[in-house]
Amino acid sequence: MLHPSPSRILAALAIALPIGIAIGSFPFQGPVPTTMRDFALSGTQAGDLDPANFETAEHCAICHGNYDVDNSPHETWTGSLMAQAARDPLFWAQMTNANQDVEGVGYFCMRCHIPGGFITGSALHADGSGLSDLDMDGVGCNFCHSMVDPAYQHGVSPLKDRGILANLISIPQHYGNAMFVLDPDGTRRGPHTDPQAPHVALPSEFHRTGEFCGTCHDVGNVAVSLNPNGTYAYNAMGQSTPNEDPHSLFPLERTYTEWKLSAFANGGVDMGGRFGGTGGPVVSTCQDCHMPQAEAQGCFSGPVRPDLKRHEFAGASSWVLEIIGILYANDPAVDQAALAVGQAKAIEMVQRSATLELSTVPSSGILDVRVINETGHKLPTGHIEGRRVFLHVRFLDAAGGLVSEHGHYDQASAHLDEASTTVFEMKVGLSPAASQATGHAAGVTMHMALADTIEKDTRIPPRGFNNAAFEAGGAPVVGAVYGDGEYWADVPFPIPASAASVEVELYYQTVTRHYIEGLRNGNVTDHWGETLYRLWLASSKGAPVKITEQTLQLP
Predict the structure, then answer these.
(1) Distances in whole angstroms, Cα of residue 294 to Cα of each of 68, 298, 309
(2) Residue 322: CA atoms inside 13 Å, Cβ hemisphere, count?
(3) Every domain of the chain and the residues it spans
(4) Which residues contact 348 (CB under 8 A, 6 or more apart)?
(5) Which parts of 366-512 fold into alpha helices (H)?
(6) Chunked in runs of 10, what are the mean pLDDT values of the chain (555 residues)?
(7) DSSP state letter for 295
(8) Rounded distance, CA 405 to CA 251, Å?
C-alpha cells in the first residue's frame, strides 16, 4: 500500500499548522519544530510512484553482472559508496543528530542517501525506519537509470519526458538538492543510442552530463536562506523555501558548483591520463573521472563497447567502506570482496588528487611547499564536516636525524598537531542570532542542520577559479587568499639552521577524532553515535591516507 503523497500531506498541514513562524522569535528547547512543508521541493514526490515498476540491483545483476568483475556495471557499483549509501554508519549518526536539532530534516537528508525512499514512500519517515530492499540499494541502478532531465530539450530529451514533466506538481528549475525527476514507469535510460535489452530502454544524453551528477552533489540547507547583504538567516517555519536555487541556500555541499565554475566544465582540461581510464587525456565531466572508461560489455549478452563507463564512483572515503565491511561482516547482502576493491579504488582516486612542488628562495631561510589541486573541484570537496587535507613536514640533519616537524599525526590517539601545519578544510558555525534562537553556542559548531555561517573554507580551488564567481555560487574562500586562476596553495615553512633535507607528505582524512566523538556525545536518540564510535575504534580510526610525497636536499 502506498503512503499518501506529500502534496496531500502538505495540504493537510496547511490547515493543521500555523504558517510562517519566524525561527528567531524564541529559543527552542529540543528540535526546531519544522514540518514537512519546510522541506518540500520540486520534482518527484515521495509515495507518488508505484514501487512495482522499479527493480532491485540484484535483479539488474542478472544481465549486468557476474561476467566481468573488473568492468561490469553491477560488480563495479557493488563496492562503491553509491551502493552502500543506505548502510553508511557515518550518515546514520549524522542524520540522527540532525533530526535532534531540526525536526523531520531526515526526510531532506534521505533525498540523496536513500533516494529509493521516494519510490517506496519510506522517506516520509524522517528517522529512516521501515526501509525496504529497494531502499537498501542506496543510490541504485533503477533509480539512476530512471532519472529524467527536468530541463526538457527538444530533439534531445526522450519525447516521453514532456508528459512526465507536465504531470509534476512543480518542475525543478535547478540541479541540486536531489530535486530529481523519475520516470513513473521505471523505464531504464542510458547513454547509448542502440540499447539491446529485453526491457524497454531509452537513450538519454542527460546521463553523460555533469548536471546529472549535480542533482545530488550540490546541497543547500532549504531552511537557511541567503540575505542580500551576503549573510544567511533562518526561514520562517511552516512554509517551503522561498527560492530553490541551491546558491541562495546555506552551502552544505558545492561539488557540482565548484566543477561547473572550473576549467574542466568549460572546455575540459588535458590531465595527461591522470583520470579517465581509456577515455583519453582530456577530462571535462564528472563521469570522466569517477566513471573511468573501458573497452568492455555493459551486459553479458551485449556488444563490446569502446566507451563503457565503469560504475566505480570512486571518491575519497575509503574509511567509510572499511567500517561498512566491519558492521555488515555477516550480512550476505554485502559483498566483502567488492568492498575491498571499492576501498582500493577510493585510495587510488585520493592519490591522483594532488601533487607537490618544493622550492627554496636563496638566503630567505624559507621552504615553499606548493600543493597543486589536480581535481575538478575544491580539495577536499563534498560534505562539509570531518574531512580535511593537511601537510606533514620533517626537516632532517645530514645524518638523517629529525630536526623539526610540522603536522605530526599520532595514530594511537588519532591526534594531529594542527597548530604547526596548514590544514585545508571547511568549518561551519552559528551566528549570534542563530545561537540566541537555538540555545547553542555561537561560532564553529557540529550542529550542521542549524549552521548559518561559514567560519573557515581554506580548501584549494580547481583550475579556472574565480573569486567572484565562487562567492556568488556559495563557495567562497574564507580564512585564506587565492588569486583568480590559482589552483594551488603556497605554504612557507622556516628552515632550521642544521637541516640538510626535508620530507613533505600530503594527507587526506575523512573524519577527525573530534568529529566522531562529537557525533557520539551529541546522540541522545538511538545507538548510531555509539555504534559509529565503536566502529571507529575497531577500524583504522579514520587514519589519514597519503596523497603524495616529495623530498628536497637543502642548500
Answers:
(1) 12, 10, 6
(2) 19
(3) 352-553
(4) 314
(5) 432-438, 467-472
(6) 35 33 54 93 94 94 95 97 97 97 96 94 92 92 97 95 96 98 96 88 96 98 96 94 96 98 97 94 97 95 94 96 98 96 98 98 92 98 92 98 98 98 98 95 96 98 98 98 98 96 98 97 97 98 98 94
(7) E
(8) 35
* Cell 525506519, located at residue: 129
Spell out the residues 6+ positions from residue 411 whose beta carbon is closer than 8 angstroms to its own.
541, 543
| Residues contacting 286, CB < 8 A, separation 6+ | 210, 212, 213, 214, 217, 256, 259, 376
What cell numbers appear for 2 in the block?
A: 502506498
Q: How far apart are CA 190 and CA 305, in angstroms?
A: 14
Q: Do the beta carbons of residue 424 and residue 226 sit within 8 Å?
A: no
The CA distance from 433 to 222, in Å, is: 18
Supply the pLDDT for residue 476: 98
Separation CA 514–CA 125 (nearest Å): 30
**Cα–Cα dist 264/529, whole Å:** 38
Phi-psi region of 40 (alpha: psi -120 to 50; beta: other; left: phi over 0): beta
Which SS3 state, helix, strand or coil, does residue 551 take? Answer: strand
